[in-house]
Each structure stands twice: as C-alpha cells, then as structure tokens.
Amino acid sequence: MSIQVTLHILMDNQPAPGREEEGLVCENGFSCLVTVTENGRQHKLLFDTGDSGRFLQNAAQLGLDLSAVEYVALSHAHYDHTRGFLAFAGMGYDYKLLVHRYFFTPKYWDQEHSYLYVGNAFGQEYITRHHIPCAMISHQTHPVWEEGHTYLISAFDRTCPFEPLDSCQLQSRGGEYCLDDFREEMALVIEGADGLVVLSGCSHSGPVNICQTAARRFGKPVKAFVGGTHLIAADEERAAKTIEYFNRSGIETVGVCHCTGELGLAAFADHCPHSQHIGVGTVLRFEI
Fold it and tell me: Which InterPro entries match (predicted)?
C-alpha cells in the first residue's frame, strides 16, 4: 500500500522558478494545499493561509478547487500564516479549522524601543461569532483523518544545539512580555510505509528539531522536508550547520522557501544538492 502526497504552494515570498510570468501573486507569507490519496480516497487540507486572501487568487489561477478542503491547519500564530484565513472563512466552504490550544497567545516582535504586534488578526470570539467548526489541539501527535497516516505534531524536542529561541520574538502571557517558545507551532507529517513527508510553516522551533522529533516519534526516517526554515534570522554558521544536517540526514527532498531568506536560499542552492527553491506555483509529488 502506498500513499500519494501532492503539495501545491499557493503563497510564498517569491514565485516558483520559471513561473514568474504567469500572473501569480506573491507576498511575505506561506500557504500550501495538501492532497493525500490512499486506497483511491482523496483528502485535502489547507496548511496556512498567508497574509491576505490573495492565495485564493493563486489557487484559481492554478485551476485548484478549494471548496473540497476538509481542514484548514494554521501552523503558528503569526499574521503572515494566518491573516488570509479571514478571506477563506468568507467563502462559505464546509471545513474544520485546526489550531493548537495556545494559538491565541498574543505575539510581538521586540524592536528595542517598542513591541510590534505580529500575531493573529482574529481571536476566539471571531470563531464563535461566525460558527466556524474548530478543534483546539492539545495532543503532541494529532491524527487529522480517522484512518491515520496524516498528523499534526507539536511540542518539538529541542535537542539541536544550534537552534536556540529567537530573542526578538516575544509573547504576552499573564500580562507580561516574555520570550516566545512557540509552543503552539505545529508541523504536518504524512506517514508512509518507509518514511515521512514533513511540511513546516516557519520552523521557529528549528527545522532540525522538527525533523528529528518527527523521526523519533514515528520511528521512521524523514524522506522529504518542505517549508520555511527561518534562516532569515540566522547567521552564516547556523545556516551552514543546518545544511550539513540535511546533507547527512538521508532526507531525499528538501524544498525551502518563505522565511529561509535570500542568503539562506542561496546557501541551500550552492551546498545542498538535493534541495530546491520552491515558490508560488510549485507542485511537489511524493509516493511513500
């Protein structure tokens, strides 16, 4: 038995290489349509929704029908992954929202002289007022569909020595600003017979920590990692160590985008042979 996984990148900072002239819209944000097919049955999940509703425009341009989406999963509580949900919610589709139990914790960026709010554009009252079906996930490994094989995972093991928390990223808890530990961050894992496909929004917990946690939790190797790596906030040494991990880990496909940053993307292109720069319009297919 095999599982087919298709990832359509609906929003990113840049278009996919070679698709610059197709009229696809880009913004600082991320959104991906995930299609999982098993035993002839197809499931669709929308992973993140970008900073605006323009990912809907890209989906239409790419000929993708989002009315069949069963779940919307928001990876973490930053605006560039969640604000587009307001536009999706207005479409009238039948779906269920999946967020972590700590998703509504206010988020800020320390600008030295002030704190900039960078969190959600909606709260729990919006979900209630608009009668949006929503699951507040508390389990570290949460199956999306009853038959399994697709999971949202959180509470990542922080064992990688070169992936510390970002001191500029803050949260408000109990009325006080404190270092953001991104306890609400989730990654999507699709489990096949021989390995895992891992999809991450920003990897604030660290792409190495995320991949290693997934491998330990499922007892299988990661075959593909796709998404942001947050190397935009890292120095050259950390980027080099991250790429070294991906080169020796046995991960066969590394698709990097969004918060990887221009220098990070260039480093992956130069030093990670099995990596590829993905963007709006990229389609990745896996059989696991």
Answer: DHPS-like_MBL-fold, Metallo-B-lactamas, Metallo-beta-lactamase_dom, RibonucZ/Hydroxyglut_hydro
